[in-house]
Write a structure and sequence with these properties.
Blueprint: E1 10-16, H1 19-22, H2 34-40, H3 45-54, E2 58-63, H4 76-93, E3 98-100, H5 109-123, E4 128-131, H6 145-154, E5 158-161, H7 167-174, H8 190-204, H9 207-210, E6 216-218, H10 225-236, H11 246-253, E7 254-257, H12 264-274, E8 279-280, H13 290-299, H14 304-319
Parallel strand pairs: 1-2, 2-3, 4-5, 5-6, 6-7, 7-8
Helix pairs in contact: 3-13, 4-5, 5-6
Length: about 325
């Protein structure tokens, strides 16, 4: 049987809920069972116990969806600062086990850029995570570009994480099946399509022309884009449209993680398309338990050197850990 190499394990899409922020969304906790809520609200013993049991050395912790992407009140900025400061305090109690991604108040993009810089320079956060649409707006809208400008300047990534699709999309595409198959609008399909669309729009919108060194992370083995990137690139190059190299930009500016997608064929597709240096280990705890992720790495048909890159080497380089 294949085994994991002897190296640290850094999991980079591992979530929690801040009680004050999650309370701003009516009924959000009612969508999770008690065991899930216990884990989402834990930033100490239980989290570390389950990390130890599965062989996870470090988590980069991020707020779960929708985080601050639906805040639009006057106190959105100060609320998000409190959320980030509380996460920083929790990380400070376990500095060898935890790191963090900032939540950003995208309703005020300039303030969000400042909050990214504050959390990176003051708290040592490794970047930020944005969940889906920002108050119903796609992130390629130029009002959000100050966030990307600041991320490039700070040389930290933005992690694009799924959230629920736009209500009109859910109504047109999924309403017949959402009741019997509630995950179809979430991890089974809706999350993937929405997040991949956000990523594609960033490329088409010229964000990487303006900020060529911007770094973007996608979870779930790239939300299907590594599988599709050749076809997207080839189709966009056909006569009649603006010419660009989607494939070049995607494979240069994006990194992907294994969160919640522990498939050998899918991983090998990603390695072949993007290269081993672009793939980062993640589990998606607590929505996905830790052991399936670390146990899966024992079965991956890659050499120990490449496994070590996925498990921690690539994260160390990208996040300067």
């Amino acid at each position: 049987m294949l085994k994991k190499p002897k190296c640290p394990v850094i999991a980079i899409e591992e979530h929690y809920w801040d009680p004050e922020l999650s309370a701003t969304y009516s009924g959000v906790e009612g969508t999770r069972n008690d065991e899930m809520l216990k884990r989402l609200h834990d930033l100490g013993d239980l989290r570390i116990k389950e990390m130890d049991e599965a062989g996870v050395d470090i988590q980069i912790i991020s707020h779960g969806a929708p985080s601050a992407q639906k805040l639009n009140s006057d106190d959105a900025v100060v609320l998000t600062k409190r959320v980030n400061d509380r996460l920083a305090a929790a990380i400070a109690k376990h500095p060898t086990r935890f790191a963090g991604f900032a939540a950003l108040p995208t309703s005020d993009p300039s303030a969000a850029a400042d909050e990214l810089e504050r959390t990176v320079t003051r708290h040592g956060f490794k970047g930020a995570m944005i969940h889906g649409l920002a108050n119903g707006m796609f992130l390629d809208d130029k009002r959000f570009w100050p966030i990307f400008e600041r991320a490039e300047k700070l040389d930290v990534p933005i992690y694009l994480h799924p959230s629920l699709p736009h209500p009109q999309v859910m109504d047109v595409y999924y309403k017949e099946y959402a009741k019997d198959f509630p995950m179809v609008i979430r991890a089974a399909w809706g999350f993937t399509v929405e997040t991949a669309t956000i990523a594609i729009r960033l490329v088409l919108g010229g964000v990487f022309d303006k900020y060529p060194n911007l770094k973007i992370v996608l979870g779930h083995l790239g939300e299907t884009l590594p599988f599709l990137v050749w076809r997207i690139d080839n189709a966009l190059a056909r006569p009649g449209g603006k010419q660009m190299s989607f494939r070049e930009i995607f494979c240069r500016n994006f990194w992907i993680t294994t969160s919640g997608n522990f498939s050998n064929p899918a991983l090998l597709c990603c390695v072949m398309e993007m290269g081993i240096d672009r793939i980062l280990f993640a589990i998606d705890w607590p929505f996905v338990p830790n052991p399936p992720g670390t146990n899966w790495m024992e079965t991956v048909p890659l050499c120990d050197e490449d496994k070590a890159k996925i498990l921690s080497g690539n994260a160390k380089r990208l996040f300067r850990m």
